[in-house]
Specification:
The structure is a single chain. With about 280 residues, this protein is an alpha+beta fold. It is built from ten helices and nine strands. The chain folds into two domains: about 80 residues, Phosphorylase Kinase, domain 1 (2-Layer Sandwich); about 180 residues, Transferase(Phosphotransferase), domain 1 (Orthogonal Bundle), CATH 1.10.510.10. The site of adenosine-5'-triphosphate has 16 residues, from strand 1, strand 2 and strand 3.
Length: about 280
């Protein structure tokens, strides 16, 4: 689809019902979903549209997840074959944004460290409630004045329910090796797991610190832009060293332990929070 997809009038009306008359700003559009920020006199909302068979299914699933989560509210509907939902806009910077001073070389790291710990605790709470996020990314933690909130539940799964028909592990750069192996060789369907979320969580914090995905693909002869996700996952199974930059050695050594541990001995999100809270900023 060229340019931004048109936002369905039904979704705009649903946003206006909570925010008053809204104006829209396009935020992202890729792989069958588009997100707008709707702002009106009474507040802000995120509108997500899923189009095409896959985009519509993913968005319907995400709306169902938001509906099941006690801390979120959602209104969802269809516009022809497309699926949309509206949920309150969460105000605050992402973890990626909060780590900008670290990437720029600042030694004043007490605040980003506290933010990292808070993100881990939010993931721990999510796991304790029986959920797995499935696609943690540097932009998927929003640090609001009332705590860190996760977004983008497109691949989230509640333990004890049927797994999704197909799950490819969220963003490929943060797929845990055991999950990459299971995607390649089964058994299917693949289930996301809390342990794989913790790998992604450590990878998120590594990426926020260094500005690069955690694995040094070039060291094993891969050029990311020439490598498809399946081939990249195969390399992840085989083993790729971590990138060499260590701008924050103590913080990164905690993360490196998580990123190199096998799933069975990987710490939980709560344990990672505890280990990071002992780091000297
Ligand atoms: N409820 C929300 N509150 C604040 N920001 C939001 C909200 N929902 C989405 N966003 C913003 O829109 C961006 C895209 O949303 P989201 O990650 O859900 O879409 P996506 O199409 O799945 O993107 P990707 O495939 O890259 O993960 C987020 O990174 C965030 O900046
Ligand atoms: Mg996203």
């Amino acid at each position: 689809m060229g340019g931004f997809a048109p936002c369905p009038p039904e979704a705009v009306a649903a946003a206006a019902a909570v925010c008053g008359p809204v104006s829209l700003t396009g935020i992202t559009e890729r792989r069958g979903t588009a997100v707008w920020r709707a702002v009106g006199p009474l507040g802000g909302a995120a509108i997500k549209l899923g189009y095409g068979a896959e985009g519509a299914e993913i968005t319907a699933r995400e709306a169902a997840t938001l509906d099941a989560l006690p801390d979120y509210t959602v209104v969802a509907g269809r516009s022809g074959a497309d699926v949309w939902y509206v949920t309150p806009w969460l105000d605050g910077p992402s973890t990626w944004e909060l780590f900008r001073p670290v990437r720029d070389g600042s030694q004043d790291r007490a605040a980003p460290l506290a933010d990292a710990v808070a993100l881990c605790r939010t993931v721990a709470d999510f796991h304790a409630a029986g959920w797995v996020h499935g696609d943690l990314q540097p932009a998927h933690g929003i640090h609001t004045t009332s705590g860190v909130r996760l977004i983008d539940f497109a691949w989230s799964w509640r333990e004890g329910t049927d797994p999704w028909r197909e799950f490819n592990g969220g963003i490929t750069h943060l797929v845990a090796p055991e999950l990459a192996a299971r995607i390649a060789t089964g058994p299917q369907p693949v289930k996301p797991s809390p342990a794989a979320d913790v790998y992604a969580l450590a990878g998120v914090l590594w990426t926020c610190t260094t500005g690069r995905w955690p694995l040094d693909y070039e060291a094993v002869g891969f050029t990311v832009k020439d490598t498809g996700p399946a081939e990249l996952r195969q390399a992840i199974v085989t083993g790729i060293p971590l990138t060499g930059a260590r701008p924050w050695p103590q913080f990164q050594s905690v993360l490196a332990e998580v990123l190199t541990a096998s799933a069975s001995v990987r710490p939980t999100a709560g344990e990672l929070a505890g280990r990071l809270s002992e780091v000297i900023p």
